[in-house]
Amino acid sequence: MLDRLKEEFKRIKENHQNAIIRRTALTALGPSMVRFLPRGTKENIIPTLCRIKFNELLKFNSQDEYQKWFEKNLGKVASKIEIGNSGRRKWAYAAKILNLFLRDVVSNSRFFDDNQANEIIGWLYAPIDKKVLDRLRKLIEKRIPNELRYVDSKKKFYKIQEVLGEAAKKVGVPRVWFDDVWVGNK
């Protein structure tokens, strides 16, 4: 009996990084995220997320390199979503899914060691949803969209990320932390 258990742990050890990625994909696509997506979308997106090559992040030296990698993967995620116009599908829904997933792989799992995660986290974009948009509108300006579905272009997405990035940099924290407003920090 112990031999079978030992073999199971060997199998788990060999596939641990893949398990981290799959578990993180499942949580990024939780009920609050998929409630507005057509039936079957979650099952189509999970394999796409699991095929992302995270080790490529270790080769980057700039935000621009990360942005190109992000947009390449964003296009793959967006292609699995069949809702809304192409801009909304990509820059609202797919971006939210991908940003939640990347945040959790980089900062909330043990996929990367601490030094690697600290290098990468500064490039990550904040996941955007209604709570994030509402808080931004209260803090800075009313021209921020009031709903995720209105973040329907590359320009709108990066405008929000730029504003978040500038403020976060002045405080010395990563912009992805702004998603913490979702849990009610005041």
Gist?
With 186 residues, the protein is mainly α. The chain is built from 9 helices and no strands.
Count up the helices: 9
**pLDDT < 50 runs, ≥5 residues:** none
Strand content: under 5%
- Derived from helix and strand composition plus strand pairing, the structural class reads mainly alpha
Helix content: 55-70%
Describe the protein in words.
With 186 residues, the chain is an all-alpha fold. 61% of the residues lie in helices and 0% in strands. The chain has helices at 2-14, 16-28, 31-34, 41-50, 63-78, 86-107, 114-121, 130-139, 154-171. The chain is globular, with a radius of gyration of 17 Å.
Key traits:
186 residues, mainly alpha
Helices and strands, with pairings:
Elements: H1 2-14, H2 16-28, H3 31-34, H4 41-50, H5 63-78, H6 86-107, H7 114-121, H8 130-139, H9 154-171
Helix pairs in contact: 2-4, 2-6, 5-6
